[in-house]
Amino acid sequence: MEDKNNRPIGFFDTGVGGLSVLKTAIKLMPNENFVYFGDSKNAPYGTKSIDKVRELTLKSAEFLVSKNVKAIVIACNTATSVAINDLRKIYDIPVIGVEPALKPAIELKRDGKIVIMATTVTLAETKFNNLVNKYGKEAEIEPLPCPGLVEFIENGDLNSKELKSFLKSKFNKFEGSKLSSIVLGCTHYPFIEDVIKEIIGSDVPIIDGSLGTTNELKRKLEEKNLLNLNNKDRYIKIFNSSENKNLIDLSYKLIEI
Ligand code: DGL
User: Which pTM value belongs to this model?
Assistant: First the structure.
């Protein structure tokens, strides 16, 4: 009989971004098998209509379920904002989402603005607005939509002159303002953290939600007795909807296998 705990955990993102979360899960959950699906053919989602984002996310989740996963991590803020409730209704396996890590940013108790970098869809959705309503009185929150940024990372560009000038123009408006921290509200952005630091200075903390998501995943699996406790030959498989073979190479490079 197949051991139900030996089934892989499915990760989804619109492209290579969710690998920033997978990378943390690989480190912290050494006994688990993972299947990753990136929908790079349709990326970015962050500037599409809500209906389109929902349709593409549900289709991608179906692909993961066809791989017999025991849980799904929607390692994408945009897809989580739009479709997490639908997915939880459809599937009875744990479905874990991500959201901008605003709470840890508040807890730093630093003066200045908390800048939330994310896609246009994430920042316009109810989920984000609920977060702002919850924490808005405790800090000055500045949403910073970054349409166009995901494309650099999808192209494997993590450090070019063009990327730097894109980011400089985004942060121009904060010239002379005190920044408390930067929250990376899109799972693609941790891959360019060093460049962001170069632009804003290394004294401003940059926060991403990978650790929080991985801990939540562990908790959910534990609760359902689904943790894999002894797996000597773990596997990690990466799939992508794009025909561009470079994306699979880039994906393995990003998780440094
Ligand atoms: N990684 C996705 C996110 O976290 C990128 C969205 C997109 O494809 O625009 O929001």
Answer: 0.97
